[in-house]
Design goal:
Blueprint: E1 10-13, H1 19-28, E2 35-39, H2 40-46, H3 48-56, E3 61-67, H4 71-84, E4 88-92, H5 97-110, E5 119-123, H6 131-138, H7 144-157, E6 162-164, H8 170-176, E7 182-185, H9 204-210, E8 214-217, H10 219-222, H11 227-239
Parallel strand pairs: 1-2, 1-8, 2-3, 3-4, 4-5, 5-6, 6-7, 7-8
Helix pairs in contact: 4-5
The chain binds ligand LLZGTKA7.
The ligand O=c1ccn([C@@H]2O[C@H](COP(=O)(O)O)[C@@H](O)[C@H]2O)c(=O)[nH]1 binds next to strand 8 and helix 10.
GO molecular function, one term: orotidine-5'-phosphate decarboxylase activity
Binding site for substrate: 15, 37, 64-73, 127, 189, 198, 218-219
Subunit structure: Homodimer.
Length: 240
């Protein structure tokens, strides 16, 4: 495999209980220019030092902790995350405008005097949420797409640079916010892959055609017998 350009839009979800398992995957994916996503499982086990290790190895890092708390607490959390030197992190749009604005204040405070600032994005509706769950169980009326677009607009107005959503909603988000508003999309499943707990899914090719900026891919790579071959296959399809 020679041309890894398309790997730059892939964020590999390092959902592991410890750094030894994550490091094993990093060895297998050596030289591939993908983003690495660190979520709750790995971060709560290994903390900032593992993030520092990824940065030292030259990876772009998305810290996926989905903050959702009162504005003052999120401001402090955002400042601490900014000091870690990650490239991207997220908060829940459901926390509202004041909370998202507080996150941006935390970033500004912690990065004062520096040119480097993380991209801050908001989670809209989790990609595991179906239309039935949203209306019947959670009790929010309307379509999933309506609520996703509403949250995206709120995030954009609060000064955030993008959102996490399903690739299914990307076109509507770009239309409502702007073409440059960043879309980070989990719910990516290559043809024939197990869907698992995801609800709103697309294949990598479909997601690219829909205009997604970054595809978050976990188990289709990490649970594959040969992770390097799995990502290689995805990149090949995206390069066609
Ligand atoms: O709405 C969301 C927000 C975050 N995620 C995260 O993305 C990955 C997806 O992993 P897969 O194994 O490819 O399903 C995982 O880390 C989630 O925490 C999401 O799926 N949906």
């Amino acid at each position: 495999m020679e041309d890894w350009t398309q790997a730059e839009r892939i964020m590999v979800a390092l959902d592991y209980p410890n750094k030894q398992q994550a490091e094993r995957l990093l060895q297998q994916l050596e030289g591939i220019p993908c983003y690495m996503k660190v979520g709750m499982e790995l971060f709560y086990a290994e903390g900032p030092s593992f993030v520092a290790e990824l940065k030292k190895q030259g990876y772009r890092v998305f810290l996926d902790l989905k903050m959702h708390d009162i504005p003052n607490t999120v401001k402090g959390g955002a400042a601490s995350i900014t000091r870690m030197g990650v490239d991207m992190f997220n908060v829940h749009a459901a926390g509202g405008s004041a909370m998202m604005e507080a996150a941006m204040e935390g970033v500004a405070q912690a990065s004062a005097g520096s040119n480097e600032r993380p991209t801050v994005i908001a989670v809209t509706q989790l990609t595991s949420t179906s239309q039935h769950m949203l209306n019947g169980e959670i009790g929010i009326a309307g379509t999933v797409q309506d609520t996703v677009v509403r949250y995206a607009k709120l995030a954009s107005q609060a000064g955030l640079q993008g959102v996490v959503a399903s690739p299914v909603e990307v076109a509507a988000i770009k239309e409502a916010c702007s073409a440059s508003f960043v879309t980070v999309t989990p719910g990516i499943r290559p043809a024939g892959a197990a869907i698992g707990d995801q609800s709103r899914v697309m294949t990598p090719k479909e997601a690219r055609a829909a205009g997604t900026d970054y595809m978050v891919i976990g188990r289709p790579i990490t649970a594959a017998e040969h992770p390097r071959q799995a990502i290689e296959q995805i990149v090949k399809e995206l390069s066609e």
